[in-house]
Specification:
Blueprint lengths: L1 H11 L3 E5 L7 H13 L4 E5 L2 H10 L4 E5 L2 H9 L4 E4 L3 H5 L6 H14 L6 E4 L6 H14 L3 E4 L11 H22 L4 E4 L7 H6 L4 E4 L1 H4 L4 H19 L9
Parallel strand pairs: 1-2, 1-8, 2-3, 3-4, 4-5, 5-6, 6-7, 7-8
Helix pairs in contact: 2-3, 2-11, 4-6, 6-7, 7-8
């Protein structure tokens, strides 16, 4: 219960940083690195793929809340039975890599089927596809809230062609997801997590847009060493902390 209480507190204070290992990342050694880095980097949560051994390892390595992601209701039921703290319907990157798109109707069906399978109360977060129109996103988010979903996550970068490198490229990646955040925060009362293209540079913009949380993935899991991962996560956490406490000195360790 302490994990969930910490999660709720971070959401209320609008400071949650979730580190995403990847919905299709089944490399257990890489997942271990990401989870360890999230823990040592003072993140607020981790997000892993829906496989029993991966969930077990994540729960053993950290006291952080563990999100488990899938688009398969049966896999999400399994995750709930094996210790997941939050179920995540989303992180659709694998679908996009395969040239697929997921519709609002499909998201609603997956969510409905998942909720019917659950035999215990567990928080559910659902990603709103970034490629559908903003009107469809708002409608979907409102329907998800009515169904009892606890949180929604935005996306955008996976569906946007980036033409620049460096800081400008980062801004382009984050722009769509942050714009979606602005619209969704205005239209639902549940927490909104901004994900897709978010880094320490763009994280403060997401929170300024009204997000209660951010999800960072590729900027961490593309790295090879835990030390590098920790540095990126800490930079993000400190950027968020500086936004909330502009006069506080950054932590040295």
């Amino acid at each position: 219960m302490e994990r969930i209480e910490n999660l709720k507190n971070d959401l209320r204070e609008k400071k949650l940083v979730k580190v995403i290992a990847g919905i299709d990342n089944f490399d257990i050694e890489k997942v271990k690195k990401v989870v360890a880095a999230a823990d040592q980097g003072h993140a607020g949560a981790v997000d892993v793929a829906a496989r029993k051994d991966i969930i077990y390892v994540a729960k053993q390595l950290t006291e952080l809340p563990v999100f488990v992601s899938s688009v398969n209701p049966e896999e999400l039921k399994m995750a709930a039975e094996n210790g997941a703290d939050v179920l995540e319907i989303g992180n659709y990157d694998k679908l996009y890599k395969d040239g697929q798109r997921i519709s609002a109707e499909e998201v609603l069906n997956i969510t409905s089927d998942t909720l019917k399978l659950l035999d215990r109360k567990i928080p559910v977060c659902v990603t709103v596809p970034g490629h559908i129109s903003i009107a469809e996103q708002i409608s979907l988010a409102q329907k998800l809230e009515e169904m009892g979903v606890d949180m929604i996550q935005t996306e955008g970068a996976a569906t946007v062609e980036i033409n620049n490198q460096g800081a400008r490229g980062l801004m382009e990646k984050a722009q769509v997801s942050i714009s979606n955040t602005v619209e969704l925060v205005r239209n639902v009362s549940i927490p909104v997590m901004t994900s897709s293209g978010i880094t320490h540079t763009t994280a403060p913009m997401a929170f300024a847009a009204g997000a209660s949380a951010i999800g960072i993935g590729s900027c961490v899991n593309r790295l090879e060493s835990v030390i590098e991962m920790i540095a990126v996560i800490r930079a993000t956490v400190e950027a968020v902390d500086k936004l909330r406490n502009p006069e506080r000195e950054p932590a040295l360790v």
